[in-house]
Each structure stands twice: as structure tokens, then as C-alpha cells.
Write a structure and sequence with these properties.
Layout lengths: L2 H18 L21 H25 L9
Amino acid sequence: MTATDESERRLAEALQARARGTGGRGTTRPGRPVSLRSGTSTGTALLLALLGGTALGAALALLSLLAPGVLLPLG
């Protein structure tokens, strides 16, 4: 067996082990769990933006119904 045959055999074994999910040297370890950041999450920020837009829309609708002519016409 030549050195090339030996290296090809080791490469084939390593690829098979990687495909099976087992491994020896050179395998990656599972990552550490990511801790959640304290503070405002993206979901909370989106919810606040939705509520703010709803309040602004309701205020403009009430203003246009209760005091016609106060808001400028759009077109």
C-alpha cells in the first residue's frame, strides 16, 4: 500500500464518519446555547409600533369625523 492509498483510505473513513455524525479528531463541538439579551425584544418593538400606528390612525379618523375641514385634503 502506498502513501497515497493510505491517505485516500483515511479521507474516505473521515468522510463516512462525518456523514454518520460520529467522529474522531477534527469534529466540531455543538455550539453553546445563546442566551437571550435582556431588554426590548424585536416582537415587543413591533407590537409597540403596531399599537402606535393604530392610535395615530384612530386619532386622525376621529379628527376628520368630528372636525371636518381641519385636516388638509390629499388630492
